[in-house]
Fold this sequence. Notes:
The complex is a heterodimer of chains A (about 325) and B (about 280). By secondary structure, chain A is mainly alpha-helical. Chain A has two domains: about 5-85, no CATH class; about 90-330, no CATH class. Chain A has helices at about 5-30, 40-60, 65-85, 90-110, 110-135, 140, 145, 155-165, 170-195, 200-220, 225-260, 265-300, 305-325. Chain B has two domains: about 5-185, no CATH class; about 205-270, no CATH class. Chain B contains twelve helices and four strands. Chain B has a two-stranded antiparallel sheet with strand order 1-2. In chain B, strands 3-4 form a two-stranded antiparallel sheet. The radius of gyration of chain B is 28 Å and the shape is elongated. At the A-B interface, helix 1, helix 2, helix 3, helix 9 and helix 12 of A face helix 3, helix 5, helix 6, helix 8 and helix 10 of B.
Amino acid sequence: MEQLTLKSHRFRAEREAQWARLEELLSRLERGANRKLSDDEVIEIPVLYRAALSSLSVARAVSLDKSLIAYLESLCARAYFIVYGTRTRLTERLSQFFAHDWPNAVRGLWRETLVSGALMILGALLAYVVTLHSPEWFYAFVDQGMAQERGPDASTAELREIIFKTHGPDGLTVFATFLFTHNAQIAIFAFALGFACCLPTAFLMIYNGLMMGAFVALHQRHGLALDFGGWMLIHGVTELFAVTLAGAAGFRIGWSLAFPGEKSRFEALTAAGRQAAIVMGGVVVMLAFAGLLEGFGRQLIVSTPWRYAIALATAFLWAFYFYGRPAEGERP
Amino acid sequence: MTMTDVQENIRQRELTTPEGVDLRLVLADAGERATAFLIDMAIMAGVLIAMTLIAIGAGIAARFKAAEIVGTIWLLAWFFLRNFYFMAFELSPRAATWGKRSQGLRVVARNGGPLTAEAIFVRNAMREIEIFLPLSFVFGAGGGVDGWIAIAGLVWSGIFLFFPLFNRDRLRVGDLVAGTWVVRAPKRVLDVDLVAAPTDVELAFTTAQLDAYGIKELSVLEDVLRRADPDTMKAVSTRIRNKIGFTGNVTDSNFLRAYYKGLRGRLEGRLLFGRRRKDKYDTA
Lengths: 332, 284
């Protein structure tokens, strides 16, 4: 009897087992048990996926069972993301990142990096000149918590003590970790702010420069500028460069939002976002390194020449790593 | 068409696989996204509290000698939790945090390609301005900042927080920049085929009786049968009986099942000849 066995019902009965098999394999994969899948089972997935897709096309054409179509759509989507999602191993991904992706992305942002660095230097010069002439301006640039006991009223001896203070090894790990997490959060923030059309990021860069300039001027008045430079630059080369790059990444995003060029705004933003993300991933690594230098290096090494030596070494290291090699396109 | 059907059509997006089949993904709505996020925040808060208790406990147990290492671990753990909780889960094959999983959602690249680590990094790093920036203005109001400035800042940063409500695709800023969107990807089980379940009686309908309805009514009938609510079944059954002039003495459930089977057979039969009868007003 035709009424009793609908074509759509026979269609379903013939393929149901295949779908269930695919569903079982997917569930195991999604649970992260991919090591437990045998080679044969891994090869089975794309075959079953294509079968399910063709079932979906047929079902849409011949079946009016709504729940069946919804089931197949969900099954096919799950399988699609497994089959076409790339599965590179973490180690491969990381080596690719440090060998190519990161330096290339940083090189690609050279204009933004220059702007970002220039803004910081501008801020530093401004605050330096102003504070050198009238020290009472110091607190306009640096807030109390940041300054601690350093300020226009501090004596030369007090300033010297901070610069050459040696903690014992106690407390340094917590200190280093705190510096790293704090700075990384600020950098991510500066990056995210770029979305608001660059302006807040620009402000943050200038502000960062202002604080630096005010501190340098303060120490200059006591003849300690050189020593302060060593105190700051031992980790500062890495840290300031990382912050500059974070600002540059933010600028790239804000700029592509405001001026997408020939692409559509969405496309431009997505392309910029991808590049900026790579840079930012690296910035977090740089800040971890800077945190170690600041937390351990600065407290254990108290000689100004040595501090400058380390600062120079890190400067060369980063410059060579990012800009020292030929661009990817020029390679044979 | 029911209300939910209309909403799903507005939020349905095309994703054509390389094999040429459109998967017809449905975007998650703002409520689901918000719920998922709140669940994730609750989980993060829970882990943080547990971590703090363990740290305090460990500090006391070690008589504060190991306080330094405990403090370091706590700081790092909080940093990784805040920044990498979302990333780690979205990098997994299911591309969803626990909150999203509970709502049956997942993250998908808008172009249908593979979801890259970069995209996931961006969409989560942007959370800084979406969530933490408004929060900092809320809590900054007491900290010496002028009240009006804090309110202005809150309004400004509120634009980022409520961004998903202002665009058709429910994209948050992070999604926009990363080129991703969040879709519904619930796990469905295959329901029984309603025509396969045995009925107690076999009823035969005339072609005229089966031509009373179209595909839309069939799908409503399917919902009614699957929900199996006696009152609704009775009401629906009465309407259909009156409309097609059926007088046989059978239970509502048996009548509806038999009519569903008959109607689906009739409509699917015509479908094979290229006639898709949308609803009862369609004369195709």
